[in-house]
Design a protein that fits this description.
The protein is built from ten helices and 94 strands. It has about 1300 residues and is mainly β. Strands 1, 50, 53, 54, 57 and 58 form a six-stranded mixed β-sheet that branches. Strands 4, 7, 8, 11, 12 and 13 form a six-stranded mixed β-sheet that branches. A five-stranded mixed β-sheet has the order 2-41-48-47-44, with no helix packed on it. Strand 55 and strand 56 form a beta hairpin. It is extended and about 145 Å long. The two termini are about 80 Å apart.
């Protein structure tokens, strides 16, 4: 049984960074981009949001299963995501995005940790509503390097928006391009996109060049990038006759390709003339330039020819070069295939072994330049016999493991997304058993311009100030050129409100005439960036940009963000309200961002309601509402279990789901992570899946997916199907299982500076498969003899590469684990010591705290053996007073603490602790702030004022002490108070001192839980980390009278059925002068309740007797004491239950004894005894006489004609048949019920058709067999009760 756990918290780093960037963009302008009211994990329009979460702390096996289960729904989610992307509205502004799908998570109160956030992006460029006047904005354009297919018409895209709609014109090679003069060129309607049509002839090459689009309206002109148009080319290979290539076996060989130059460059691959691919390995491989390299030629290489092929992208054509034919000269003319796998193949064939040499690149050093963000490809191809191995290194550091990958049998190193830190010297090492050589490649990283701060549209109100910023970086440093409406800023008309300061344009006191579109062009030798940003001056009251009165549904306990897209100039302020009342929502569970978005950190049921956002500026206000509904999460509370079934049996997998009833639930099943086809052997019900006649193909994993339109949950189980015939596996399963035997024969190989390969032989699994191996290590320097877990591996592995730390003398052992338990550890491996290095980290948990008033103790957590990296690990401790800029004091320490003496009282210090060993120092440590020791405070709070709030609470107010008198960190102000006496005479009180603390720098507080009607004294102190300061002046106060506590020991006694006695004691805390007691009581019998009666007593009365109205009803009593303030807490009791309702109490037992002595009770018992005696006598006489007596029913009910019992109307009763009718009694409804005896009246008849008269006598036929004859009668018996029997005998 496995459950998918979530999911689940907040998206990946790129999405989080994008959200942060978008949010920052929103805060710069008038409002966020006009995206819709947004919700995390909610349904909105056509979108479905699914909660996400991860289960931290789970065992690795469970984590792996959960990860697999998360991947189960990837295809489903991808389809849903594509559907959502297609359905979401367009034009939400740059960066606006539709719903993001995530896995179902497990929020509180379920114990799952992780929560991922589902959100629409908030950010993007500033958007002005299209009904307002605005300059043009380029919305779509072709790429800078635009390569087109010569067989198609040419499209150069350029689209823009604005109000009024912009007009378009183009330049070609920086000159005006007159479209009207060329019949092949046209412009799409309401667009600037150029269409060049070649259906009537013409050469596309004539239109190559650099194009730029201009979009213009009366408020300005926007420019596209300079688009370089090129026509794709796929030239033919030049004709050439190639002579056979003659080469000695074992010699290196390069077959050059030299493909014709194409645009873009073609893809190169080698094949034979019969179109069979050339097999490549570390001996024979293709270089990045397309050439085919043989590190050494073997005789089998001439079994085929070699042809270079070039595939051109746009034309989808393949050009083939004439094939090369090899002729290999050899000392061993026979191509014996058995020698291919010979351990010394080259010697067997008479080929001389030689050291490696580089075929590409030539020499021992070369250089390479790469642009930032591109891929760096380094290549080293070497010859030699045997074939050399290639290894890659970087001088002064490690290869970037997250970006580096090896290609072409380790002959190429590719580093993706290059950055400046990837520059430096790399070298490749080619080695075989004859020797090694290396080639050094110096890598220089340059950069085309990239944005640091791209200019954004600026919307200002008349008279406001603003600025456009254009910051970019690159290598070499790019230059910045400003333009306005497509013209250089220097040639534009002067504007006194505008000032250019390098990469910034500052606008002051802007007016309507300042509207324009500005272009920033930043460039260096590697490229350029062009950005448009308009300045618009508007006076617009606030308006809402999203639909009104939207409904958002969210899942309980999730995080939700509500957006309120708005626009206005000047910038409106936005406030949020709930249910149309109360103050502005911010703080606590709510957080309002600068762009106006409202985040609810954890949705609760009480958060449901109507939220109103109000945008206000000096021109007016606008508001919008959204209704938030909170739904319960979908949870599978009874999950399918792993099952083992025999073939042909029936299996049921349960999946019971709890969900919000207002949401539509859909339950589906997956098998082996694919949708399950429900065949006629399966039955899918609402809460289960049943499989009839299980077959081998049914074996696998089954996943139940319960989903609503808001969230989903899933659980997985595995079904194992056993065959009819017991297999060896099944026989093993029947054997007893045990813990595995210990692994053995540990071996260390592939020894390196930071890694080693550990190999072991598994022990017997004892009929339970091994699931995991745990590798442990021990070092003999810091903690000899102590074993630590190093890593964990699956049970299918018996060899693993272990990552090691420098300067550790390692020894390893392995433990096997199965479902029964863990094996004994293996015998230790041999020791392996790694070489030393400077520390790569510093100690953690650095603190500086004073233990006395004139010192500071600096402590830290020492580094362990795997972090020391070298001998003589020590720590350089530095400290200095904060903000004095004095020189650092330092000392070298071998332990984990150092005490600085003679320090002033409670002064902040900057502290650094750096690790050092004999190989060098660790990285520069972080600075930690510590404090010297504290002293007792020197001052007490002054002007302490007391105000009595009620009988149990007072409020305090005091003046703040000066910070220099605290002499430490102010922990709290503390009040000491004690009860001096009670205002009641002769009442003893405890004078134990109590305290109330007020943390932080507060000036008021409340002391509660006081005793009413008492005299108190109070003192206040200041408390820091050292202790209390001096006490303030003692203040006295008196608490007013309060209500008393409940009366003590309230007792209810019932001596008989006529009276009830009540007794009680005075309250433990009178809290004032008692003026009496109030007793309220009411009679009740089942659900019937009588009228409540109230009795008031004097303060001295503690007893009362209640006269019962009837002996059946019970009474409920409520007693409270009173002071002048009012009644206090009441105590409630009930009278004892009567005997037919409950077990008799002591009071009722006494009552029973009284009843037993009553005369009427004794007479009743005597009458019953006499009646029983008479019945016994009658029965005895009857058994002794036998014979006949009539049983004809008084009612004239004739027998049926078929009944033979008609002669004398009597039955013969023999002694053996004369059995009394026992075990029957008359119930309250007049029916006779059988009790203990199995005997019944029906047993005496054959027909079973008897019935009862109104008086309870039986009507029917009795048939009794005698020894001599059967007597028959047709009259019914009249003596069916004991009374009737007596009358009939009389």
């Amino acid at each position: 049984m496995r459950r998918r756990e979530a999911s689940g918290a907040a998206g990946d780093d790129r999405q989080a960074a994008a959200r942060a960037a978008d949010s920052a963009d929103c805060t710069r302008g008038r409002s966020p981009s006009p995206c819709r009211l947004t919700d995390f994990c909610a349904v909105w329009d056509a979108g479905v949001f699914l909660v996400s979460a991860a289960g931290k702390g789970a065992p690795s096996g469970v984590k792996k299963r959960r990860l697999n289960e998360a991947e189960t729904l990837n295809s489903v989610r991808e389809a849903q995501f594509q559907r959502l992307e297609a359905a979401r509205p367009r034009g939400l502004g740059r960066g606006a995005r539709g719903p993001v799908l995530r896995m179902a998570g497990q929020p509180p109160p379920w114990a799952y940790t992780a929560v991922l956030l589902c959100a629409l992006s908030l950010g993007g460029a500033i958007e002005i509503p299209m009904d307002l006047s605005q300059p043009p904005t380029i919305t779509k354009q072709s790429v800078k390097d635009h390569i087109v297919d010569p067989r198609d018409n040419i499209l150069i895209e350029c689209e823009a928006k604005g109000n009024p709609a912009p007009s378009f014109h183009w330049t070609r090679n920086s000159k005006f391009f007159n479209i009207a003069k060329d019949p092949r060129v046209s412009m799409r309607r309401r667009s600037g996109t150029l269409v060049i049509d070649f259906r009537s002839g013409g050469r596309p090459e004539e239109y190559e060049g650099e194009y730029q689009c201009f979009a213009r309206n009366k408020f300005g002109t926007a420019l596209s990038n300079r688009i370089r148009l090129q026509v794709s080319k796929s030239p033919l290979w030049p004709k050439e006759n190639l002579d056979p290539v003659v080469v000695q076996e074992g010699a290196p060989l390069t077959l050059q390709c030299n493909p014709p130059p194409g645009l873009p460059s073609p893809v190169i691959f080698w094949m034979s003339s019969s179109m069979e691919p050339i097999t490549q390995d570390k001996r024979v491989s293709q270089g990045h330039n397309g050439d085919l390299y043989f590190s050494n030629v073997m005789l089998q290489d001439m079994q085929t020819d070699y042809s270079c092929n070039a595939r051109f992208h746009f034309t989808h054509t393949i050009q083939q070069k004439n094939p090369f034919t090899l002729k290999v000269l050899t000392n061993h003319p026979y191509n014996d295939s058995s020698l291919r796998n010979h351990p010394d193949m080259y010697s067997a064939r008479g080929v001389a072994e030689r050291t490696p040499s580089f075929m590409y690149p030539q020499g021992t050093a070369s250089s390479q330049m790469v642009l930032r963000g591109m891929d760096l490809l380094l290549e080293c191809i070497a010859s030699g016999v045997p074939t050399p191995d290639i290894a890659w290194y970087k001088k002064g550091g490690d290869l970037p493991s997250d970006k580096a990958k090896f290609e072409n049998f380790n002959k190429a190193l590719r580093i993706t997304n290059v950055s400046e830190e990837d520059s430096g010297e790399y070298f490749c090492l080619a080695s075989n058993k004859m020797g090694s050589i290396r080639h050094t490649i110096s890598v220089r990283v340059k950069a085309a311009p990239y944005w640091l701060d791209e200019p954004k549209n600026l919307i200002l109100a008349p008279g406001e100030d603003g600025r456009l910023v254009c910051r970019a970086n690159g290598n070499p440093k790019p230059t910045v050129q400003w333009m306005v409406n497509g013209e250089p800023l220097q040639s534009a008309p002067p504007n006194p409100n505008r000032e250019v300061a390098g990469d910034t344009i500052i606008f002051r006191d802007t007016q309507i005439s300042s509207r324009a579109v500005y272009q920033c062009n930043t460039s260096n030798e590697h490229g350029y960036l062009l950005a448009n940003a308009f300045v618009s001056v508007l006076d617009v009251p606030p308006r809402m940009l999203s639909p009104r009165n939207q409904l958002i549904r969210v899942i309980l306990y999730n995080r939700t963000r509500l957006d309120c897209p708005f626009f206005g100039s000047p910038i409106p302020t936005l406030r949020w309200f709930k249910n149309g009342q109360g103050s502005n929502l911010d703080g606590g569970n709510y957080h309002v961002y600068e762009n106006g978005s409202l985040e609810i950190k954890m949705i609760r049921k009480e958060d449901q309601g109507i939220y109103t956002c109000v945008a206000t500026n000096i021109l007016g206000k606008a508001e919008n509402q959204v209704r938030l509904e909170v739904k319960d999460p979908t949870r599978i509370y009874r999950m399918p279990e792993d099952q083992v079934a025999k073939r042909g049996t029936t299996v049921q997998l349960e999946c019971r789901v709890k969900h919000d009833p207002s949401l539509k639930l859909a339950v589906s099943w997956l098998k082996d992570d694919e949708p399950l086809y429900i065949s006629n052997r399966m039955k899918k019900e609402e809460d289960s899946l049943t499989i009839f006649g299980v077959a081998e193909r049914d074996q696998g994993s089954y996943t139940c997916v319960a989903s609503t339109e808001l969230d989903q949950d899933l659980a997985k189980a595995y079904l194992t199907v056993l065959a009819d015939q017991a297999t060896p596996t099944n026989r093993l399963a029947a054997l007893p299982k045990g813990r595995p035997d210990r692994p053995r024969d540990l071996e260390l190989t592939d020894l390196a500076e930071r890694s080693v390969r550990l190999t072991w032989i598994p022990g017997d699994d004892n009929n339970s498969p091994i699931t995991d191996y745990v590798v442990q290590f021990e070092e003999d320097q810091f903690q000899p003899g102590v074993w630590h877990d190093h890593s964990k591996f699956p049970g299918s592995v018996n060899s693993a590469v272990l990552r090691l730390s420098p300067y550790v003398n390692y020894q390893f052992r392995v433990i096997a684990i199965n479902e029964v338990g863990s094996s004994h550890p293996s015998l230790p491996s041999e020791r392996y010591r790694t070489s030393g290095a400077p520390p790569e980290s510093n100690p953690s948990d650095v603190k500086g705290e004073g233990t006395r008033k004139n010192n500071m103790e600096i402590t830290w957590t020492p580094m362990n053996a795997t972090s020391a990296f070298g001998p003589n690990l020590r720590y350089i401790v530095k400290w200095r007073r904060r903000e004095t800029r004095e020189t650092w004091n330092n000392v070298t320490v071998w332990g984990s603490r150092y005490v600085v003496g003679q320090t002033p009282v409670y002064v902040p210090y900057e502290i650094r602790v750096q690790a050092e060993n004999d190989f060098g120092k660790g990285p520069e440590p972080d600075t930690v702030i510590g404090y010297s020791g504290e002293d007792y405070p020197r001052a007490a709070p002054t002007d302490v004022k007391i105000r009595v709030l009620n009988s149990t609470a007072i409020s305090l107010q005091w003046n703040r002490v000066y910070s220099d008198t605290v002499q430490g960190q102010l922990r709290e102000y503390r009040a000491y108070y004690w009860r001096e006496s009670s205002l009641l005479k002769n009442l003893w009180v405890s004078q134990k001192r109590q305290q109330a603390g007020f943390p932080g720098d507060r000036l008021r507080g409340v002391v509660s839980r006081l005793f009413p009607y008492s005299n108190y004294k109070l003192e206040m102190v200041v408390v820091n980390g050292r202790g209390d300061g001096p006490r303030s002046e003692t203040k006295e106060f008196t608490t007013p009278e309060g209500v008393p506590s409940a009366p003590r020991r309230f007792r209810v006694r019932q001596p008989n059925l006529e009276t009830i006695n009540l007794e009680w004691d005075h309250p433990e805390h009178p809290n004032g002068i008692l003026i009496g007691y109030t007793l309220k009581y009411v009679a009740f019998n089942g659900t019937k309740v009588g009228k409540q009666i109230v009795e008031n007593f004097s303060p001295n009365q503690t007893k009362f007797t209640v006269q019962r109205a009837d002996p059946v009803s019970r009474y409920r009593f409520s007693l409270s004491a009173r002071t002048q303030v009012g009644s206090g807490e009441a105590v409630t009791e009930e009278s004892p239950a009567p005997p037919n309702e409950a077990t008799p109490t002591a009071a009722y037992t006494n009552n029973q004894a009284d009843i037993a002595t009553q005369g009427w009770f004794i007479g009743l018992m005597c009458a019953i005894a006499l009646l029983v005696l008479i019945l016994l006598i009658v029965c005895f006489i009857k058994r002794s006489r036998g014979g006949k007596y009539p049983v004809r029913e008084k009612k004239d009910v004739p027998l049926g004609p078929e009944d033979p019992k008609e002669e004398d109307g009597s039955f013969d009763y023999s002694d053996e048949d004369n059995k009394p009718l026992q075990g029957s009694q008359t119930s309250l409804d007049g029916t006779i019920k059988q009790q203990e005896s199995d005997d019944s009246l029906v047993d005496y008849g054959e027909g079973g058709e008897g019935q009862f008269n109104e008086d309870g006598s039986f009507i029917g036929q009795y048939t009794v067999k005698k020894d001599k004859e059967e007597t028959e009668g047709n009259e019914s018996s009249e003596a069916t009760s004991p009374v009737n029997a007596i009358y009939s005998l009389a």
